[in-house]
Amino acid sequence: MTDHTITVAGTAVDTRHWIGGERVASAETFTDVSPIDQSAIGEISRGTATEAAAAVAAAKAAFPGWAATTWTERARILHAVADGVEKRLEDLAIVETTDNGALLRSHRRGVMPRVAHNFRFFADWLLRLDHDDFETRGHTNHVSWDPAGPCVLITPWNAPLMLATWKVAPALAAGNTVILKPAEWSPLTASLLADIAAEAGLPAGVLNVVQGYGAEVGSALVSHPDVRRISFTGSVPTAKRIAESAAANLTPLSLELGGKSPLLVFADADLDLATDLAVEQYDNAGQVCLAATRILVEESVADEFTRRFVEKAARLDQGDPRDEATDIGPNIHARQLEKIDGFVQRAVAAGARAVIGGHRKDGLYYAPTLLTDVAQDSEIVQEEVFGPVLTLQTFSDEEEAVRLANDTRFGLAATVATGDRERADRVTAQLVAGTVWVNCFFVRDLQAPFGGSRHSGVGREGGTWSFDFYCDLKNTVTAPKGWKDHG
């Protein structure tokens, strides 16, 4: 009998799919590699169209029962899942760090607690979901949120479990069943989530986890006619292929697609704060879709800003993400490192200057990089690198700052550093972005709508917006007369 369990830093992880409440192995596997030292973690079941069909069938069969489950019972089970996450927080943290290379201290203190919060928030939000009835010529309108059906959720490798549960929790709260397809570069915590959900009492088939490559199992999932919602976080090219598949079945979809976000630093800004915000963009080795990778600084303070930035960036500790002192870990995969370095080397060849960094280090580590002397229409300014690479440009006035900020095909986020409240109001009103931060960064609340404009995505999730997406909204109109008296 084949052993399908691997041990990761003392934690047992099942490498098989989770379909219909059972572990299911595939005939073939793929190798999961740790970015920390590029060692093989284990062989993971590699899903195909067969496993995709089985998972959708299981989700479809489980849907009527879960949809009919009362809101209070659904909420109770989701809170039980959150309890399970909190009990296994240390296991989840070390497995995630081993699998995707993000900082262990961040997983312990922020990311995994946020995973539990995702379940608690949407469980509680479900119970407060309401729309006041309203009258139309004496008729009563009543709005309700009906579960839509099986949902395919495809999640990225940069924050695997947190971003997965950001989708899984509202989809389940809404009464849907789920097929979760984690990224092949970081599949392990999705498997642990299946165990936690089962232990919490989630019925078989309500949550299914299918591992594998997007071109194989992913494409089979998003093209399945029984899927009623698709939510994807990832790249624009992949999103376009998913949208084509969804269109064939008119399957509603939500897309969160990264960005090329600006950080606007005005001369009246607190420069210490502004440089702190800029250096923070190296978080998770630059593998953050919301990162403000284009730093735009007013000319009069550009030299001083750059001096302070270089000084603060030099204090960053890059190394093993399991070490509490580490600030920047490795990039996820050799292929991603090649991509990052390719962007930088082409930019330098085109005339850019590396103020800091601009080169690989040992293993999958890339030196934090700041490039200046870059043209607005250059590749390095226009395309998402998804690594620890920032560009710095200057502007002469507010109008130019806004023009440069908006001059990409993306529109996910923006950050503004200024000491003038009126300027902040003027500038933020003109920025094309789903989220704008003023004198802060990465302050996120699940009540807020989240998503991007332009090529950064389609739709919004968070709070009631999540339920609007994961449900079929119904309006029932009732006449004031025509009733028989049964008294």
UniProtKB/TrEMBL annotation:
InterPro entries: Ald_DH/histidinol_DH (IPR016161), Ald_DH_C (IPR016163), Ald_DH_CS_CYS (IPR016160), Ald_DH_CS_GLU (IPR029510), Ald_DH_N (IPR016162), Aldehyde_DH_dom (IPR015590). Pfam families: Aldedh (PF00171). One of its GO terms (molecular function) is oxidoreductase activity, acting on the aldehyde or oxo group of donors, NAD or NADP as acceptor. Keywords: Oxidoreductase. Coiled coil: none annotated. CDD domains: ALDH_F8_HMSADH. The active site is at 256. Residues 27-475 form the Aldehyde dehydrogenase domain. Belongs to the aldehyde dehydrogenase family. PANTHER family: ALDEHYDE DEHYDROGENASE-RELATED (PTHR11699). This is Betaine-aldehyde dehydrogenase. It comes from Streptomyces colonosanans. The lineage of its organism: Bacteria, Bacillati, Actinomycetota, Actinomycetes, Kitasatosporales.
